[in-house]
From TrEMBL:
Residues 25-58 are annotated as: Disordered. This is Protein kinase domain-containing protein. Residues 28-45 have a biased composition (Basic and acidic residues). It comes from Rosa chinensis.
Length: 58
């Protein structure tokens, strides 16, 4: 196997491993961001509902 073989993605060389690590990091970051945004939306929704209930009772 020559060094040229290691540069081909999908051949198990360093490039493939590095590419896989980058994509998994990116996916993990995106999932974390989505979770954080979802939690923020849920908190805002809860806050809004509590305020609406308070106003309805007043």
């Amino acid at each position: 196997m020559s060094w040229a073989d290691f540069d081909k993605i999908g051949q198990g060389g360093f490039g493939a491993v590095y590419y896989a690590e980058l994509t998994s990091k990116r996916k993990g970051r995106d999932e974390t961001k989505r979770e954080r945004e979802r939690e923020t939306r849920e908190q805002a929704r809860t806050k809004r509902r509590r305020r609406e209930r308070r106003e309805a009772l007043a």
